[in-house]
Write a structure and sequence with these properties.
Layout: H1 11-27, E1 30-35, E2 45-49, H2 56-64, E3 71-76, H3 83-91, E4 95-97, H4 104-107, H5 109-116, E5 120-123, H6 141-150, E6 155-165, E7 174-179, E8 183-186, H7 190-195, H8 197-213, H9 222-236, H10 244-257, H11 267-286, H12 303-344, H13 348-377, H14 382-427, H15 433-461, H16 465-474
Parallel strand pairs: 1-7, 2-5, 2-6, 3-4, 3-5
Antiparallel strand pairs: 6-7, 6-8
Helix pairs in contact: 1-2, 6-8, 9-10, 9-11, 10-16, 11-15, 12-13, 12-14, 13-14, 14-15, 15-16
Protein name: Phospholipid/glycerol acyltransferase domain-containing protein
Transmembrane segments: 314-336, 356-372, 378-398
Keywords: Membrane, Transmembrane, Transmembrane helix
């Protein structure tokens, strides 16, 4: 058995893992981990993952990696020369990469040392975090490191990982982590690298990118991504209408159905995509979702219906207030700062990072003060000390256990309020615009719903594999109109 890398699973890394798990648990509603193939419990591994969500991506890997194996990440060597930061990075298992050297052996010195001792090194080959409809081009650093290691050892495995967020910048959304089929490099493949290193490295990088693509959602453009998302909402409801283990494939299948390459040959499909995008834009203007107006698809929106829905949703939420209000009050500074972060952060990929960092920074003094006040109330006794300590995680768990359903109820109240205001503004003569937009959205939803199902049925009958999968997955929703 290989020796463990230095600082592997030490106290600093264990603390980092607990912090990552807490961040992931508190930020995401559901975390779905999929392993397409067993991950080795020991031995060197290279891991390649997409990088859409800044610090949340490494946190997700640390929190979910199979067998609790510690993950080492790359950082520029110059950061290790900063006195305190360098010590923290080293203690946390971060590996220095000297990009100024021309020698691959020097560039990957710490990487090769870690791998030779059976470590796991996780890399984001895109090189930066981003917000785009498809992943960025992969850089070759991981492939070079793999072949450099292979020049000294008999084999190395590369595990492609796809990280998919249902709504990456929103609290209590979901995340799917898919560990794909490992790419096995054997010693006999070293000959091609020695003969044509750049070409061989490029081929491996392309293979790694394809592995990551299988576990992620990639669209040729934003329009196709938005059209596919609205079609998914129409067919299956919100994000929880599709099982998380199927979310990537369902989404990717719809993207293929609405791919721009089909538009020249299929005017009906082009028109459907256009209306789905118009529906998406109209919902954005109304600050509503497809699910918010689903009940009006087969009925007229009247003031009576709008008022009844507002009263019923508000009453249902009000009855729950005694249960979750204490948690909301205690955690209100965290929520307030998270809202501020979302408002001022201009980069979508940084919103969740800002929220998590501010939440942790705020939670420490917040719960520290709560602990002190509780201990003070209990007379500074030893028993009171331990009771106060035990109470803090219980309060956090209690709040998180209750918040999801009540958060959904609060969103229903807001949607009902917006619909009611739109109807009232039209009746009062104040502003008929919102009501017209609302009626237009309902009409678009009805039309798109019918034509999306019709299109998929026709494509499935003609042999389209993606449509066939969607129809089979959605049975018995797909009945011919």
């Amino acid at each position: 058995m290989a020796r463990a890398p230095p600082n592997d699973d030490n106290s600093v890394y264990r603390a980092l893992r607990y912090l990552a798990r807490f961040a992931v648990w508190s930020y995401f509603r559901n975390v779905k981990v999929i392993c397409r193939s067993p991950i080795s419990q020991q031995g060197p591994l290279l891991v390649a993952a997409n990088h859409m969500n800044m610090v949340l991506d490494p946190a997700v890997l640390i929190a979910t990696f199979p067998h609790d194996r510690p993950c080492h990440f790359w950082a520029l060597a110059r950061f290790f020369r900063i006195p305190v930061a360098g010590q923290i990075l080293k203690a946390g298992g971060i590996l220095p990469v000297d990009t100024k050297t021309r020698s691959n052996a020097k560039l990957f010195e710490s990487t090769l040392d870690c791998l030779s001792k059976g470590g796991v090194i996780a890399v984001f080959p895109e090189g930066t975090s981003y917000t785009a409809p498809q992943h960025l081009p992969f850089k070759d650093g991981l492939s070079w490191a793999a072949y450099e290691f292979l020049s000294q050892h008999s084999r190395i495995s590369i595990v492609p990982v796809g990280i998919t967020y249902t709504t990456k910048n929103k609290w209590r959304s979901d995340v799917i982590v898919e560990y794909g089929e490992p790419i096995e490099l054997e010693i006999n493949e070293l000959e091609g690298f020695q003969r044509e290193p750049k070409t061989t490295v490029k081929k491996l990088t392309e293979q790694i990118a394809q592995g990551v693509e299988q576990g992620t959602i990639n669209s040729p453009d934003w329009d196709t991504l938005h059209a596919a998302a609205e079609a998914r909402y129409l067919l299956f409801g919100d994000a929880r209408g599709v099982r998380l283990e199927d979310y990537v494939r369902v989404s990717q299948s719809l993207i293929d159905v609405f791919h721009p390459r089909h538009e020249a040959e299929d005017e009906d499909r082009k028109e459907l995509k256009h209306r789905l995008l118009l529906f998406h834009k109209t919902l954005g203007q109304l600050h509503l979702s497809s699910l918010d107006i689903a009940m009006y698809e087969n009925r007229e929106i009247t003031l009576k219906q709008a008022m009844l829905r507002l009263v019923s949703t508000w009453t249902a939420l009000a009855l729950q207030i005694p249960l979750f209000l204490p948690g909301i009050i205690i955690n209100s500074p965290i929520y307030l700062l998270a809202r501020v972060a979302e408002h001022f952060e201009k980069y979508t990929e940084s919103v969740s990072q800002d929220k998590v960092v501010l939440s942790v920074v705020t939670a420490i003094p917040l719960y520290g003060t709560l602990f002190y006040k509780t201990w003070q109330y209990l007379g500074y006794s030893m028993t009171g000390f331990f009771l106060a300590i035990a109470l803090m995680p219980i309060l956090a768990w209690y709040h998180m256990a209750l918040v999801d359903t009540r958060y959904d109820m609060a969103k229903q109240v807001m949607a009902s309020w917006r619909i009611c205001v739109a109807v009232l503004s039209s009746i009062s003569g104040f502003d008929a615009g919102p009501r017209h937009e609302l009626d237009h959205a309902v009409q678009l939803r009805r039309w798109c719903h019918i034509h999306t199902k019709t299109l998929l049925l026709e494509l499935a009958e003609s042999g389209d594999a993606h449509a066939r999968y969607l129809v089979d997955y959605g049975q018995p929703l797909f009945q011919k109109p």
